Amino acid sequence: MSRGARPASAGSANALELRGVSRLFGALAALSDITLSVQPGERRAVLGSNGAGKTTLFNCITGDFAPSSGIIRFFGEDVTAFPPYERIRRGLRRTYQISSLFAGLPVLDNVYLACRGVSRNRYSLLRPRRDDALVHAAEGLIDAVHLTAVKDQLVGELAYGQQRQLEIALALSGAPRFILFDEPAAGLSPTERRDLVHILTGLPAHIGYIIIEHDMDVALRVVESVTMMHNGRIFKEGRPDEIEADPEVQDLYLGGGHG
Ligand SMILES: Nc1ncnc2c1ncn2[C@@H]1O[C@H](COP(=O)(O)OP(=O)(O)OP(=O)(O)O)[C@@H](O)[C@H]1O
């Protein structure tokens, strides 16, 4: 599935490219020699059992952790040494397993603040006006995650699943080009999971993503490619149907009670 390196200046550069990325914690190799390419607009699942290295992979891509070795390129640019905010400025977003919302504010204010945080006027102390373009942008994102009916409710009063949907709206603020979703289906009811699948498959086509997800029913329905990890290494890549049918994957993962 690896599609090879492209010139940094070309418009056809990979959205994300990792070359030989490793991350050590003392003697433990949480990531070993990860080489991975994701095209613009591509949607990929990273699957693997507990401790496989999935979250460490995300932390290296976002810049929360520096890799011990290797190179990370984002749309052709070497971002390996960039701090997280420089990667955010270039259109990289991430959702977390743990909520990062303002529970005491309404839904609209949460999204508005996220839009403002990535806009050029982020330090302005002016109160938002009703015709503020950022308010309209926030309302559009709220609609994209199916929360229009509750846009004036306090976040703390929302159901858990709605809070997770709101986190996706925050990740969509400020024209992202690529999003890392960290277990977005965790803790959701079956109905909320179905809604999540609609939200993810309905995102604008130019926005690519990687999703870490233990729920295979969700993960395999919202991606076109899958990377399987085990003990810090990639051991299999393929389409969702290939991965599902692979006996080695079934032994190591699907039969292991993680789905
Ligand atoms: N900050 C850290 N310090 C030391 N070891 C760490 C640290 N972060 C992760 N590890 C170790 O690195 C390995 C990979 O962990 P990681 O969290 O990336 O796995 P994971 O695939 O995301 O697992 P899970 O599905 O349980 O979230 C594990 O052995 C973990 O204990």
Automatic annotation (TrEMBL):
SMART domains assigned: AAA
GO molecular function per UniProt: ATP binding; ATP hydrolysis activity; L-isoleucine transmembrane transporter activity; L-phenylalanine transmembrane transporter activity; L-valine transmembrane transporter activity
GO biological process, any: L-valine import across plasma membrane
Domain of life the protein comes from: Bacteria
InterPro entries in UniProt: AAA+_ATPase (IPR003593), ABC_AA/LPS_Transport (IPR051120), ABC_transporter-like_ATP-bd (IPR003439), P-loop_NTPase (IPR027417)
Any single Gene Ontology cellular-component annotation: plasma membrane
Domain ABC transporter: 16-256
Name this protein carries in UniProt: Amino acid/amide ABC transporter ATP-binding protein 1 (HAAT family)
Source organism: Aquabacter spiritensis
